[in-house]
Amino acid sequence: MKLGAAIIGVVVVAVVAMLLIFGGDDPELSPQDQKTPTATATPTATATPAAAVASAGVLGVRIGDGKLQVTPTTITRDGRILSLAYENTTGAAIEVVFAKGDPKGAKAIQRELVTGAVVQADQQRRDAVRIDPGRYTVLLRSPDETRPPTDAVSVTVR
Q1: Domain residue spans of the chain
Q2: CA gap 71, 122 in Å, rounded
Q3: How far is CA 14 from the centre of its chain?
Q4: Beta-bridge partners for 63
Q5: Which of 23, 75, 111, 121 is the most buried (most CB within 10 A)?
Q6: What is the pLDDT of residues 89-135, one digit of tens each?
Q7: CA distances from residue 142 to 63, 84, 150 in whole angstroms, order as listed
Q8: How do strand 58-64 and strand 81-88 relate by DSSP bridges?
Protein backbone atom coordinates (compact mmCIF):
# COMPACT_ATOMS: atom_id res chain seq x y z
CA MET A 1 0.00 0.00 0.00
CA LYS A 2 2.82 2.39 0.93
CA LEU A 3 4.58 1.53 -2.32
CA GLY A 4 1.45 2.42 -4.39
CA ALA A 5 1.04 5.76 -2.57
CA ALA A 6 4.72 6.53 -3.15
CA ILE A 7 4.42 5.83 -6.89
CA ILE A 8 1.34 8.05 -7.18
CA GLY A 9 3.13 10.80 -5.29
CA VAL A 10 6.15 10.59 -7.61
CA VAL A 11 3.90 10.75 -10.70
CA VAL A 12 2.05 13.80 -9.35
CA VAL A 13 5.33 15.58 -8.54
CA ALA A 14 6.68 14.74 -12.02
CA VAL A 15 3.56 16.13 -13.75
CA VAL A 16 3.64 19.35 -11.71
CA ALA A 17 7.36 19.78 -12.40
CA MET A 18 6.80 19.29 -16.17
CA LEU A 19 4.02 21.90 -16.17
CA LEU A 20 6.25 24.37 -14.36
CA ILE A 21 9.19 23.72 -16.70
CA PHE A 22 7.35 23.57 -20.04
CA GLY A 23 4.35 25.73 -19.18
CA GLY A 24 0.71 25.05 -19.87
CA ASP A 25 -1.71 26.66 -22.29
CA ASP A 26 -0.90 30.18 -23.37
CA PRO A 27 -3.03 32.72 -21.55
CA GLU A 28 -5.52 34.61 -23.70
CA LEU A 29 -4.47 38.08 -24.74
CA SER A 30 -6.61 40.94 -23.67
CA PRO A 31 -8.25 42.89 -26.53
CA GLN A 32 -5.71 45.70 -26.34
CA ASP A 33 -2.80 43.22 -26.50
CA GLN A 34 -4.06 41.40 -29.59
CA LYS A 35 -2.63 42.14 -33.03
CA THR A 36 -4.64 44.38 -35.29
CA PRO A 37 -5.51 42.48 -38.47
CA THR A 38 -4.27 44.05 -41.67
CA ALA A 39 -6.18 43.88 -44.92
CA THR A 40 -4.51 41.90 -47.69
CA ALA A 41 -5.57 41.71 -51.30
CA THR A 42 -6.61 38.27 -52.48
CA PRO A 43 -6.84 37.44 -56.15
CA THR A 44 -10.30 36.57 -57.40
CA ALA A 45 -10.90 33.29 -59.15
CA THR A 46 -11.75 33.44 -62.80
CA ALA A 47 -14.44 31.20 -64.20
CA THR A 48 -12.98 28.32 -66.16
CA PRO A 49 -15.12 25.97 -68.21
CA ALA A 50 -15.30 22.49 -66.73
CA ALA A 51 -13.65 20.91 -69.76
CA ALA A 52 -10.67 23.28 -69.59
CA VAL A 53 -9.75 22.32 -66.03
CA ALA A 54 -6.14 21.15 -65.96
CA SER A 55 -5.35 19.27 -62.81
CA ALA A 56 -4.24 15.82 -61.80
CA GLY A 57 -6.64 13.10 -62.81
CA VAL A 58 -9.20 15.40 -64.51
CA LEU A 59 -10.36 14.53 -68.00
CA GLY A 60 -12.02 17.45 -69.80
CA VAL A 61 -14.98 16.43 -71.98
CA ARG A 62 -16.40 19.26 -74.15
CA ILE A 63 -19.44 18.76 -76.35
CA GLY A 64 -20.09 21.36 -79.02
CA ASP A 65 -21.91 21.30 -82.37
CA GLY A 66 -21.98 17.49 -82.54
CA LYS A 67 -18.24 17.30 -81.90
CA LEU A 68 -16.48 15.81 -78.92
CA GLN A 69 -13.23 17.23 -77.53
CA VAL A 70 -11.44 15.26 -74.83
CA THR A 71 -8.30 16.62 -73.16
CA PRO A 72 -5.85 15.18 -72.44
CA THR A 73 -6.07 11.92 -74.37
CA THR A 74 -3.43 10.37 -72.11
CA ILE A 75 -4.06 10.96 -68.42
CA THR A 76 -2.72 9.83 -65.06
CA ARG A 77 -5.31 9.04 -62.40
CA ASP A 78 -5.35 10.74 -59.01
CA GLY A 79 -4.79 7.64 -56.93
CA ARG A 80 -7.33 5.24 -58.49
CA ILE A 81 -9.79 8.04 -59.27
CA LEU A 82 -10.39 9.72 -62.62
CA SER A 83 -12.53 12.86 -62.62
CA LEU A 84 -14.64 13.71 -65.65
CA ALA A 85 -15.36 17.41 -66.20
CA TYR A 86 -18.17 17.71 -68.75
CA GLU A 87 -19.20 20.85 -70.60
CA ASN A 88 -22.13 20.80 -73.04
CA THR A 89 -22.16 23.96 -75.18
CA THR A 90 -25.00 22.76 -77.40
CA GLY A 91 -28.69 23.52 -77.10
CA ALA A 92 -29.67 19.88 -76.45
CA ALA A 93 -29.08 17.27 -73.77
CA ILE A 94 -26.62 14.55 -74.74
CA GLU A 95 -25.33 11.39 -73.12
CA VAL A 96 -21.61 10.91 -72.65
CA VAL A 97 -20.50 7.30 -72.21
CA PHE A 98 -17.14 6.23 -70.80
CA ALA A 99 -16.39 2.61 -71.74
CA LYS A 100 -13.44 0.23 -71.49
CA GLY A 101 -11.62 -0.55 -74.73
CA ASP A 102 -13.14 0.43 -78.07
CA PRO A 103 -16.64 -1.05 -78.03
CA LYS A 104 -18.60 -1.24 -81.30
CA GLY A 105 -22.37 -1.51 -81.18
CA ALA A 106 -24.96 -1.10 -78.42
CA LYS A 107 -24.33 -4.51 -76.77
CA ALA A 108 -20.57 -3.98 -76.63
CA ILE A 109 -21.01 -0.47 -75.21
CA GLN A 110 -23.36 -1.81 -72.52
CA ARG A 111 -20.95 -4.65 -71.67
CA GLU A 112 -17.89 -2.33 -71.41
CA LEU A 113 -19.71 0.61 -69.79
CA VAL A 114 -17.80 2.24 -66.93
CA THR A 115 -20.05 5.28 -66.46
CA GLY A 116 -22.47 7.42 -68.38
CA ALA A 117 -23.91 10.86 -67.80
CA VAL A 118 -26.61 12.90 -69.46
CA VAL A 119 -25.30 16.46 -69.67
CA GLN A 120 -28.08 18.97 -70.10
CA ALA A 121 -27.99 21.75 -72.71
CA ASP A 122 -25.51 24.53 -71.94
CA GLN A 123 -24.55 22.90 -68.63
CA GLN A 124 -21.43 21.66 -66.88
CA ARG A 125 -21.13 18.56 -64.75
CA ARG A 126 -18.38 16.78 -62.87
CA ASP A 127 -18.21 13.09 -61.95
CA ALA A 128 -15.52 10.78 -60.61
CA VAL A 129 -14.94 7.09 -61.25
CA ARG A 130 -12.61 4.50 -59.78
CA ILE A 131 -10.90 2.75 -62.69
CA ASP A 132 -7.88 0.68 -63.63
CA PRO A 133 -5.23 1.78 -66.12
CA GLY A 134 -5.94 0.96 -69.76
CA ARG A 135 -7.58 2.10 -73.00
CA TYR A 136 -11.02 3.67 -72.79
CA THR A 137 -13.39 5.37 -75.20
CA VAL A 138 -15.55 8.45 -74.60
CA LEU A 139 -18.69 8.33 -76.79
CA LEU A 140 -21.51 10.78 -77.50
CA ARG A 141 -25.02 9.49 -78.05
CA SER A 142 -28.65 10.49 -77.78
CA PRO A 143 -30.00 10.25 -74.21
CA ASP A 144 -32.70 7.81 -75.34
CA GLU A 145 -30.00 5.37 -76.61
CA THR A 146 -31.98 4.61 -79.80
CA ARG A 147 -29.32 5.92 -82.16
CA PRO A 148 -25.67 4.91 -82.49
CA PRO A 149 -22.94 7.17 -81.05
CA THR A 150 -22.28 10.32 -83.03
CA ASP A 151 -18.64 10.77 -82.03
CA ALA A 152 -15.94 8.93 -80.05
CA VAL A 153 -12.47 9.69 -78.69
CA SER A 154 -9.99 7.12 -77.44
CA VAL A 155 -8.22 7.80 -74.10
CA THR A 156 -5.28 6.14 -72.36
CA VAL A 157 -5.52 6.07 -68.56
CA ARG A 158 -2.40 5.48 -66.48
Answers
A1: 50-157
A2: 19
A3: 49
A4: 68, 88
A5: 75
A6: 999 999 999 999 999 888 999 999 999 999 999 999 999 999 999 99
A7: 12, 19, 8
A8: parallel
